[in-house]
Each structure stands twice: as C-alpha cells, then as structure tokens.
Amino acid sequence: MTDRMNDFDSKMDSDEDDGCEISNEHMTTVSRHHFGDESDKPSFSISIIENIKEEYGLFVWPCSVILAEYVWQQRDRFPGTNVVELGAGTSLPGLVAAKVGSNVTLTDDSDRVEVLENMKRVCELNKLKCQVMGLTWGVWDASIFDLQPQIILGADVFYDASAFDDLFATITYLLQNSPGSIFITTYHNRSGHHLIEFLMVKWGLKCVKLIDAFSFLSPYKATELSGNIQLAEIILSSEPAKETSASMGK
Fold it and tell me: In whole angstroms, what is the distance from residue 17 CA to residue 13 CA?
C-alpha cells in the first residue's frame, strides 16, 4: 500500500528531526510504501521523496513498486548479498533490499545530479546506508569496475529503445564481473519486447523466469496500479539456470 502525503508542514516537522529537510517549493512530496504479509500490520515502511514536476527519475512508477514488492517477497535471497540497482531514480526496490539486509549500491545517470542528490536524501530519510553512485550505461569508467553485484535490480529501465544496447552492455559486464549473479527487472510489455529478446541473444543472456507482475501482488496493492507489466530474471547464457527457462515472448 502507498500513502502520498500532502501535509507538507507536518512532514517537514517530522523529517527535520531525521536531519532531512523537505520543501514544497518545487512540488516536492513524500510517499510512504508499506511492506509486510498483512496490509494492516506492515513490517516496515519506506518513505520516498518525489518531485511531481520533474522528469521520471524523481517519481515512483508502478514498475518500481512491483519490483520492490518482489524483493520483499523474495527477501530470503537478499541478506548479505551485494545488490546494484540500475537507473534507480527514487530507488524504492534498492531501499527495500537494504532494509532486508543487502549491501546496496544505488546508481543512475552520472549527468543527473538532481536525481543522485535526491537518492542520498531518501537514504538519510529512511536511515539506510547505501552507496550512491553515478553510472551511465555503456560508459566504462572507474566506478563500474569495482562493482561485483550478486543481484542487479532494474525497474522500468526498458523505456528508451535507443539506450537498450548500452543498458545490455552494462548488464552483461556486471553479470560477467560476478559469476552466478542475476538481473531482476520489471518492465511494461510494450512493442519493444521483441527488441529486448533480440538483444538478450546478442549479448549472451537468457531469461530464466518470466511472470506477470500482478500475479504475486496482494489484491490491495494490485488495485492501486495498472499496466501490462512483467517481471523477468535474467542470467548469462553460459550460467546454469536456477529456474525453468522462459522466453521473453508476448
């Protein structure tokens, strides 16, 4: 369940105590996302600072909510693991991973300073220690070489077909740099899924799990979201499959 808070004054008072000042000067708001096995008794909540006037990097999209829920439901896989979230934006999935015990690095385009700064503020707001790093897909600089994630997360990263090759190059490098690692992504099943399937083959990747994203959502969360969204787990084709092999089909 997600609560979007419009009472800025009360929220500012509570967050100033946390060392995180929130302003409504640029249409900033805070949404709170609850995770737990019972809707009325969440195990914990994650607060996200959003700017509804800015670009997609400062807004929580349905794919992010769904991937975060999947991380929660698969939480036994995450304690002690190194996790990298690509194109993290507001970082909800990565923050949930940190909450359940992962060592998390949150990344977004190196040129999007406002997004990276917001990621740091959100970590402070939730009292979570995550590394925040600029990482531009397809660019090989010093920062990417030290990353050895066991789990890579990406929510709605397949939105711009012109960036798919660079994205797959980055994913492939990270998977190769950490044998046995896996990429977990949620994406809208748009017309570009055939290109995704083609590029997976091109970059030596394979899908080992493909499910309808709404199949594992509780009814009270599913009613708040919409869209034809799928979740996929992807590995190097040379790695042994841990799940039944699947196609990225329609």
Answer: 7
Non-local (6+) Cβ contacts of 225 within 8 A are: 62, 65, 66, 214, 217
The answer for residues whose C-beta is within 8 angstroms of residue 45's C-beta and 6 or more apart is 32, 33, 34, 35
What does DSSP say about strands 44-51 and 28-35: parallel, antiparallel, or unpaired? antiparallel
* pTM assigned to the model: 0.86
Q: CA–CA distance from 74 to each of 137, 215, 231 (Å)? A: 27, 14, 13
Name the amino acid, one letter, at 9.
Answer: D
Q: Report how far residue 154's alpha carbon sits from residue 20's, in angstroms, rounded to the nearest whole number.
A: 26
pLDDT tens, per residue, the chain with 250 residues: 566 544 333 333 444 444 344 444 557 899 999 999 776 677 999 999 998 665 556 889 999 999 999 999 999 999 999 999 999 999 999 999 999 999 999 999 999 999 999 999 999 999 999 999 999 999 998 889 999 999 999 999 998 899 999 999 999 999 999 999 999 999 998 756 788 999 999 999 999 999 999 999 988 888 888 888 999 999 999 876 554 444 454 4
Helices (H), the chain: 8-16, 62-73, 92-99, 113-125, 142-145, 164-177, 193-202, 219-222
